[in-house]
Design brief:
The complex is a heterodimer of chains A (about 425) and B (about 160). Chain A is α/β, with parallel strands linked by helices. Chain A has 14 helices and 18 strands. In chain A, strands 13-12-18-17-14-15-16 form a 7-stranded mixed beta sheet, with helices on both faces. Chain B is of the alpha/beta class. Chain B has 7 helices and 7 strands. A 7-stranded mixed beta sheet of chain B has the order 4-3-2-1-5-6-7. In chain B, strand 5 and strand 6 form a beta hairpin. Classes of the chains: A alpha/beta (about 425), B alpha/beta (about 160). At the A-B interface, helix 2, helix 3 and helix 5 of A face helix 4, helix 5 and helix 7 of B.
Chain lengths: ~425, ~160
């Protein structure tokens, strides 16, 4: 079996499972946010549920429209707060929190071998620490909050093997954008993406979060990476011990094995309006931009901020560009402050946003007007994703975004 | 039996196309319905009639897990969504909230304005305009059970809440 199959089998009380089989699994963690949580709570109340299966295993994180952008979003967060008080579930207030998929691992809530569901499509992020984690809708989450169980169809797996020599400025974002470009936005629909190979073994944990985070952009049920020394070091920082180390069997069946030689991959940029429109950055140079966003559950971690700062240090943001930096959590913000990164950003002329999903989904804190163009380290560039239906989002990693902020056009970081 | 007129869409219709995030500060079905598919077809919500049918290409509903997407479609009266394939979260959400969805490889043969008649019992779609028909397989037993119960939350109620 694969890691994914082993985790599913264990949580469904079976010795083994096969792809295509429907099983009911017990869950270790259930997540919802300020957009999806209120709908789940409405469903929960509709059927007259009196208690949650385990308050310790339910987490509510208001992160999408927070700090609340309007009265309606304030009402949504109120609903989460009240539910949390009534049923004793975890609630992360702003000022102690951040973007859910950066926050939960940081809080030590996502462990290898866990089965995690969240009412947010980017819940697949936690595969980076060897957990099976997947996004679902509010009704599924309401049901999981009541029963502690969910039904799933066991996914078949695609194994991605990354090898070769990584070029300068190529990180997890570039690898995953390249991969989605190769297989398409439904290239892994219903499937599990297992990321392996020597490149992955040497990839920092934050880059692994970025890769698993975007598995959904290829339609995948989950992304997953085997636990290794790098994961264990991260667990040590977040207080997880002992770690559950699960590996895929060597002779296990994969629906497909895709080898990717990273030697040819340059920093990637995905053009509007699909993440699969990825090419080497040089293919998109001279695209004029109005806004840069560096943040999100994909690329708002400390490694991302360090990389952006390394490019921005000593430079000034282009006079016709707004550059918005969003540390993904309170802790990341504080760390960036300690390391002097915030000072670099402020000196360069960036604006620092509190932790929020904000502009990634066109919510607030940097919405685009008609005809405007942004380059962002976020995960989706669908039509109107960051604002006006006639605005345009290019996706990239933090170095390309930072370099473009200086130049006012999309550019390779080496050309600054 | 469902009968309705077709609204035709292409591949990769994503959840931001179906309901833009700026409208997600509410859970109200009517409000969500009034902005359904607005990003790519601004007058859809006004023109769609009760019972109409959405037919699309591959990967319908990709993107976010927002259940607001199938809710807005159901809310504006659409009776069923037919697509060559669905993104997995959208498919789950639709079944869970009781919006019928059908995977049909021949979806390309159906055009804007065609009138379809759907027989769920026997898995037959009649294209009355084109005088032809297509068949589709039944849902797996497990999902049929959820559908029979009127969606996931009712299924949960029947099994877990006394």
């Amino acid at each position: 079996m694969t890691i994914t199959e082993k985790i599913i089998a264990r949580h469904s009380g079976k010795d083994s499972v096969v792809p295509g089989e429907f099983v009911e699994c017990s869950v270790d963690l259930v997540l919802a946010n300020d957009i999806t949580g209120p709908l789940a709570i409405e469903e929960f109340e509709k059927v007259g549920a009196k208690k949650v299966f385990n308050p310790e295993k339910i987490v509510l994180v208001p992160d999408h429209f927070t700090p609340c952008k309007d009265i309606q979003s304030a009402e949504l967060v109120k609903k989460l707060r009240e539910f949390s008080k009534k049923y004793g579930v975890r609630f992360y207030e702003i000022g102690k929190a951040g973007i859910e998929h950066a926050l939960l691992p940081e809080e030590g809530l996502t462990k290898s071998g866990d089965f995690i569901v969240g009412a947010d499509s980017h819940t697949c992020t936690y595969g980076a620490v060897g957990a099976f984690s997947t996004g679902m809708g509010s009704t599924d989450i309401a049901s999981a909050m009541i029963t502690g169980r969910v039904w799933i169809k066991v996914p078949s797996s695609i194994k991605f093997v990354y090898k070769g020599k990584k070029n300068k400025y190529v990180g997890g974002k570039d690898l995953i954008l390249y991969t989605i470009g190769k297989i398409g936005v439904d290239g892994a629909n219903y499937k599990s993406m297992e990321f392996t190979g020597e490149i992955i073994r040497n990839l920092p944990i934050d880059d692994r979060f970025t890769m698993c985070n975007m598995a959904i952009e290829a339609g995948a049920k989950n992304g997953i990476i085997e636990v290794d020394e790098i994961t264990l070091m991260y667990f040590e920082e977040t207080g997880i011990f002992p770690a559950d180390i699960i590996k895929s069997d060597e002779d296990t069946f994969y629906e497909d094995v895709i080898e990717i030689d990273v030697s040819d991959i340059m920093p990637q940029v995905s053009a509007p309006h699909l993440p699969s429109n990825s090419k080497n950055v040089d293919e998109y140079v001279d695209v004029r931009i109005d806004q840069v966003v560096i943040g999100s559950c994909t690329n708002g971690r400390i490694t991302d901020l360090r990389r952006a700062a390394s490019i921005l240090n000593g430079h000034t943001i282009h006079s016709e560009v707004r550059c918005i930096i969003i540390p993904a959590t309170q802790k990341i913000y504080q760390q960036a402050l300690k390391e002097g990164l915030i000072d670099v950003f402020l000196t360069a002329g960036c604006v620092i946003s509190p932790p929020t999903c904000g502009p990634c989904l066109g919510g607030h804190m940097g919405v685009l007007g008609e005809g405007e163009v942004a380059i962002a380290t976020t995960n989706r560039n669908f039509i109107g994703r960051m604002g006006h239906p006639k605005s345009y989002v290019y996706l990239s990693g933090p170095e390309v975004a930072a370099a473009s902020a200086i130049k006012g056009k999309i550019i390779h970081p080496d050309r600054i | 039996m469902i009968k309705g007129k077709v609204w035709k869409f292409g591949d990769n219709i994503n959840t931001d196309d179906i309901i833009a995030a700026r409208y997600l500060n509410t859970t109200d079905e009517k409000q969500l319905a009034s902005h359904c598919l607005e990003t790519i077809m601004p007058d859809f919500a006004h023109k769609v009639q009760k019972g109409d049918i959405i037919v699309a290409g591959n990967n319908f509903g990709c993107g976010s897990s927002r259940e607001h997407a199938p809710i807005s479609i159901k809310g504006c009266g659409v009776s069923v969504v037919i697509a060559k394939s669905f993104a997995r979260i959208f498919l789950r959400n639709s079944i869970n909230i009781g919006l019928p969805v059908i995977e049909l490889s021949e979806a390309d043969n159906i055009e804007q304005g065609d009138v379809l008649e759907i027989d769920f019992e026997n898995g037959i779609i009649k294209n009355i305009t084109k005088n032809t028909s297509y068949t589709f397989p039944k849902y797996p037993e497990f999902l049929q059970d959820i559908i029979k119960n009127g969606g996931l939350i009712q299924w949960v109620k029947a099994r877990y809440i006394k």
